Amino acid sequence: MILVTGGAGYIGAHVAVELMNRGDAVLILDNLCNSSRTTVQRIAKVVGREPGFIHADVRNRRALDNVFKEYPIEAVVHCAGLKAVGESVREPLRYFETNVSGSVTLCQAMADAGVFKLVFSSSATVYGDCAQMPIAETCPTGQPTNPYGQSKLMAEHVMRSMAASDGRWSVGLLRYFNPIGAHFSGQLGETPTQTPNNLLPYLLQVANRERDVLRIFGSDYPTPDGTGIRDYVHVMDLAEGHLRAMEFLREQTGVHIWNLGTGRGYSVLEVVSAFERVTGVTVPLAFEPRRPGDIARCWADPGKAAGQLGWTARHGLERMLQDAWRWQCLNFPRIEPREVVLRSIEQG
Ligand code: NAD
Ligand code: UFG
């Protein structure tokens, strides 16, 4: 059985689905601070059987001990965490407590229970403003400018030191680039509970007429069209990356770092025009100054994951946008005329 912390969240839910489709038993542990039980029901609907679910906090050592005592956990995918950059600036202690202390508590409980296989949701944010593109795992980690990024880098350090001190650990640090998209069925996707910070969820709400305009943060970057370039990766490809990492860690000990990205970057304007092309929906834009802390360019060299895990992202930008839009239309229906929605769903 595999424990997925944060499995009611966006990425964890897709990972849980793919693990279950492969035949693994999955236990989700989530405190639901940024998700809801509905997602667990949706996972059951998509897969055709229910995952286990424990409503608990990764900072709660006693709850974790009980989980490891009661269930035959062989490995953990640790997705639980806080991820809003702006909020992390306002509430740094909450971020360090959840993302760093929560990870420490989880690792302590795992070690005491004799479970030494761990896949961790890290982030390309640990590279900071990397001078070299594409970014390989050998690139030095940078100095993240916000507590969220710092907490991810600190958690990585915790896990590296831990594995260096005890050869029984097999740890995969998965550095996600920019996960977007949704499950192909339209039944699972990202459900922002606050105003979205990230491009895609914000764009979807503008396209769905829940918000007036997409603000483009910066049009004077040293990029071909002046807007920021990122490596968007389909959440289903990302989920597959976790499965491959888990297989690798069954055979290998130590700490292994993999970038999960496509290797191709798109600018904000390229994303918007691809979205308009795929869905037929126009997205009103407003150009604004750069967002503090943003970098101009960030895309992966995914060669290590390809070589070691046999993993490459299979879905392109248009597919990501189509799947994200299907999720949005089916679950947050607002836009008129309805034909627009139906047309984009049929295209999928
Ligand atoms: P999410 O907020 O949708 O999911 C995180 C889940 O963790 C939520 O269900 C939340 O309720 C749960 N959680 C938070 N604190 C918890 C705690 N103390 N105990 C138990 N559960 C807790 O976010 P996501 O996009 O699915 O991200 C998952 C992980 O991937 C996070 O660690 C995030 O930092 C990392 N990550 C995300 C992105 C991205 O763009 N989405 C990029 C890089 C890394
Ligand atoms: N952007 C806009 N308008 C918006 C939101 C974003 O123009 O409303 C732009 C940003 O300036 C940036 C691009 O869209 O150029 C992508 O921004 P996101 O906020 O979607 O993503 P980031 O690359 O800033 O950060 C994301 C996650 C981090 C993670 C990082 C890894 O939020 O948690 O990817 O690369 F660490």
TrEMBL record:
Residues 2-172 form the Ketoreductase domain. One of its GO terms (molecular function) is UDP-glucose 4-epimerase activity. Its cofactor is NAD(+). It catalyses: UDP-alpha-D-glucose = UDP-alpha-D-galactose. Its EC number is 5.1.3.2. Pathway: Carbohydrate metabolism; galactose metabolism. GO terms for biological process: galactose metabolic process. InterPro entries: Epimerase_deHydtase, KR_dom, NAD(P)-bd_dom_sf, UDP_G4E. One of its GO terms (cellular component) is cytosol. PANTHER family: UDP-GLUCOSE 4-EPIMERASE. Belongs to the short-chain dehydrogenases/reductases (SDR) family. This is UDP-glucose 4-epimerase. The gene is galE.
